[in-house]
Design goal:
Elements (H helix, E strand, L loop, with lengths): L3 E8 L6 H12 L4 E7 L17 E3 L11 H8 L4 H10 L1 H17 L11 H17 L4 E6 L4 H13 L3 E2 L1
Parallel strand pairs: 1-2, 1-4, 2-3, 4-5
Helix pairs in contact: 3-4, 3-5, 4-5, 5-6
Length: 172
C-alpha cells in the first residue's frame, strides 16, 4: 500500500496563498501522495489557476458559523450536529485519547485568552470539532501515515488535534 500524507489547509486554492498551491503541485510532481483537507470552501472566491493540475483528492469540511453576534451555546447547538457522527466514531475508537484531546482543547480555551478577566477563547472548540471530522476521515483510510499543516495558525491546531485523535505523527 502506498502511504499518503493528510495535508490540512485553511482554504484550499486561495489565490492569496499561491505558494501553498505551488508547494502541493511540486510535492505531487516529486511523487508524494497527498490527501487534502480544507477547513473552508472557496464558494464565491477566485480560485488559483494551478488547481486543475493537482490530482490530490480534497475534502472540504462542513462549514462553521462565525462566533460574533451569537451566544456560544447557540453556536454549539447549530454547529455540533455537523460534526457529531465523526466525533461519536472517534470517541468509540479510543475514549481515553478522545477525552485527553478534548481536555487539552478546553484548557487552551482558558490558557490563551487575553487575560484572566476575559471569557475563554471559543476557537479551540471549533478546531476540536474540525479535528474530529478529519481524524474520522483519516482512520477510515489506513494509507494515511502522517498529517501536515501548511502554516502555524488554526490549521496547525486542527492538525495537531487530529493527529492525536488518529494516533499519527504530524508536522507543520
Amino acid at each position: 500500500m502506498e502511504r499518503e500524507i493528510a495535508y490540512v489547509l485553511k482554504a484550499f486554492g486561495r489565490t492569496s496563498e499561491t505558494f501553498i498551491t505551488n508547494e502541493i503541485y511540486l510535492l505531487e510532481q516529486m511523487g508524494m501522495r497527498l490527501r487534502l483537507f480544507s477547513l473552508k470552501s472557496l464558494a464565491g472566491q477566485e480560485r488559483h489557476g494551478k488547481l486543475e493540475a493537482i490530482g490530490a483528492p480534497v475534502t472540504f469540511l462542513p462549514e462553521t458559523d462565525e462566533f460574533s453576534g451569537i451566544n456560544f451555546a447557540a453556536w454549539l447547538w447549530k454547529n455540533v450536529p455537523r460534526f457529531a457522527a465523526a466525533h461519536r466514531a472517534i470517541y468509540r475508537r479510543g475514549p481515553a485519547a478522545y477525552l485527553a484531546v478534548l481536555r487539552e482543547a478546553l484548557w487552551m480555551c482558558l490558557a490563551y485568552r487575553e487575560s484572566i478577566f476575559r471569557l475563554p477563547r471559543k476557537v479551540f472548540v471549533k478546531e476540536f470539532l474540525q479535528a474530529g471530522y478529519i481524524a474520522h476521515e483519516i482512520v477510515r483510510r489506513p494509507e494515511i501515515a502522517h498529517i501536515h499543516a501548511h502554516f502555524c495558525h488554526g490549521a496547525t491546531t486542527v492538525a495537531m488535534f487530529a493527529a492525536r485523535l488518529a494516533n499519527l505523527p504530524f508536522s507543520f
